[in-house]
Design brief:
Elements lengths: L1 H29 L1 E10 L8 E2 L4 E7 L3 E7 L4 E12 L4 E7 L14 E6 L5 E3 L8 E6 L1
Antiparallel strand pairs: 1-2, 1-3, 1-9, 3-4, 4-5, 5-6, 6-7, 7-8, 8-9
Amino acid sequence: MKFSLILFLNIFLLVSNCQGDLKTTNSDLEKTEKWELTLMKSGSRTGNEEQSLPYKESYTFKTDSTFTKSRQDLTEYAEGWGTYKKNKTTEGIYYNLIYNHTANITGGCTGDTSEDLLLREDGKLQNTWMMCDGPFKEYSKK
């Protein structure tokens, strides 16, 4: 009888712990915002022509002010991560990203570990790299 009671309590505790983990995971998923690359144009000096997307690229922002950027093409995968700040302006909301390391995935004018993005009023996210002849990239929320 004692063995059955102990077995029942152990199973009950195990199932209770598993359900708690699922709740935490679901809660974490609600705290993320994912943006995927949907449009890319060449730099301003070359006519700003629309390009076919050479790779998949996305940003994931969490409410704890951290982000991840990933890029995948046919042969390579790259990822960068760090922290971000939001600044509201008349143009929209600027995301200032600071990478925790030097990443070859950073798309900015300064060549360091920072990158800026603009969340426009139309709901699209765009890079600011095109201001210094980088490609124009536009992202849609998923």
